[in-house]
Design goal:
The complex is a heterodimer of chains A (about 300) and B (about 350). Chain A is α/β, with parallel strands linked by helices and about 300 residues long. Chain A contains eight helices and 13 strands. The chains are: A alpha/beta (about 300), B alpha/beta (about 350). Strand 9 of chain A pairs antiparallel with strand 13 of chain B, so a sheet runs across the interface.
Amino acid sequence: MSLTILVFVKQVPDTKNITGEAMKADGTVNRAALPAIFNPEDLNALEMALELRERYGGMVAVGTMGPPTATAVLRHALYMGADQAFLLTDRKFAGADTLATSYTLAAGARKFAAEIAPFDLVFCGRQAIDGDTAQVGPQLAEKLALPQLTYVEEIQEVTAGRLRARCLIEGGYEIIECPAPSLLTVVSTANTPRPPGARRLMQFKKARTRSELAAAHRDRAYEEADLLIEEERRLRDKGLWIHEWHAEDLDVEPDRIGMAGSPTKVKAIESVVLAGREYKQFGTDQASINQLVHELIEAHILS
Amino acid sequence: MVAKKRIGNVWVFIEQDGGRIAEVSLELLSRARELADQLGVETAGVLLGDRCDGLPQQLFEYGCDTVFLAQDPRLDPFTPLPYAKVIVDLVEAHRPNIFLFGATPVGRSLAPRVASCLLAGLTADCTDLRIDDFEDKASGTVFKNKLMQIRPAFGGNIIATIANSWQDPQMVTVREGVMPMPEPEAGRTGKVVKVPVELRDEDTVARIVERSKAEKAVNLRAAQIIVSGGYGVGSAENFGLIREFAEVIGADVGASRAAVDAGWIDHDHQVGQTGVTVRPRLYIACGISGAVQHRAGMSESAEILAINRDPDAPIFSIAHYGIVGDLNEVIPKMIKAYRSRV
Ligand SMILES: Cc1cc2nc3c(=O)[nH]c(=O)nc-3n(C[C@H](O)[C@H](O)[C@H](O)COP(=O)(O)OP(=O)(O)OC[C@H]3O[C@@H](n4cnc5c(N)ncnc54)[C@H](O)[C@@H]3O)c2cc1C
């Protein structure tokens, strides 16, 4: 048996290390001031896919939707061991909420299935740290009409057209059997993602999308179109080609993608400024602490 | 935009497991009641499961006008596909205005699937809900009486207000403990509507072969006083001081993630974004810096006392009372002061 696994990943601003400089005066977030990272749980999803490929054979492909700079996470996935990568990028995708995002990712998955290989499983990280919504996985499952398993910690077995997985629930777990193809969202406790392989890093840092290739040759004097076609063929032959798909390459309705395809609209954004409330300070001597405890009891806060 | 002919009702997905209703569902019912009263509509609970006949009465007492009850062995325990099918059919038949889900693992698996199928807007992890008018700047359309969906984003560093510009329902998930638990109104009644369960083969393909679920041993959400220890406590042994302090003043024990990760205490005690949300009468933070993810779970406490040796620790900016000092010195004195109280 061999499996084709599609893993959707996302480049996110590193919200863990958010600092004052990352907030603009108007209270919005200055994404440019935040380092962009591979969404942590997407790494767990990719690791799970790679482990399955090692167990059963097959292929792991990664896809992402984002600006051209998001190619960085695809390249990182190639360093870790992914076989194929595709970028869904277009200004028309911008401003997408989770519904428009899952719609666009579904179109990407269908194109991959039609042109490269039909998939057996689709993996996502449970949630992305920039929104923490955990919605795109289940919504993508619905868009692709696949069964969904969420909070997956372990895949126990895959047999012809079926799989068995351990999923976290509140206060415990469930072992669930379901048919493949299906979509799984993976939690951070599932595994420890491998670091990029040194040899693969040397090899795949040369992987390119069409736009990157064009940009690199913009100032060349010779006949550009022919050169690009030839370069593309060379990269494809060596497995260094990152597919780049725009809205017009996908089977999507214009009013279902990006801002237009997003029912939820942001009405207002405020930054959480700690008001620096005046608190009542007490000393560390016994008399001060007696006073504090007395006040708390008087106010019926302590009994 | 479609002109509204009528305003739909406010619905709450009622999460139950083994006949026990999740607390978050009851919390949501009270907010649903307020929203419905403001809009001049009714509330309904959507209850799926098997052998749940006894539950609607409880829901009426918590503010439900109607309970839609779908019962079938295939709906117990929860799996997302059959639940989504029954709920999508129900929404299409009745078109509620607002539909609230608890942001539990169940709610976060079910609500997106339902919303995707209905092409409805869905906002995750709301911390507040309000009714207000909203102008969609892109289209210039003004919407009257929409649901303002307020949630933290970017790891809690910003608060966003989101509104839905498409057709109803307006869907949200809300975390547990964020809305206060209402007092039930004994004897309040309502109407039960039995819902036919029509499932297709593809809805029942997933099978639970094993299930292990433990009741939560600690329930911090109901605690009136919490003594919480952080990384500043220093060691597993020293966490005994936190426990002793809690016991003396009749409090429950909480912790920051750093203390949980260090293995000094169980995850059930973790307060914050990836732990529980608490709103006690008094929260005592000992050796906790007050990171945004921690504050997300405790900033609604009525009173906060911070004990930290760093005067610039962010916890002080949300504290009502503070002691800048070493907790190893301060806590024994607190215990002594309490024991000798008059
Ligand atoms: C996605 C995500 C989710 C998270 N979820 C949570 C969550 O749910 N809950 C949570 O708590 N954290 C969470 N965190 C972690 C959070 O960012 C902080 O790392 C954590 O809260 C820090 O815990 P702490 O305050 O105990 O430790 P520290 O930040 O190390 O603070 C220790 C404090 O103790 C003080 N101190 C040291 N010694 C003493 C002493 N002897 N006496 C008095 N004071 C002393 C220090 O001055 C310091 O302020 C999350 C992080 C991420 C990225």
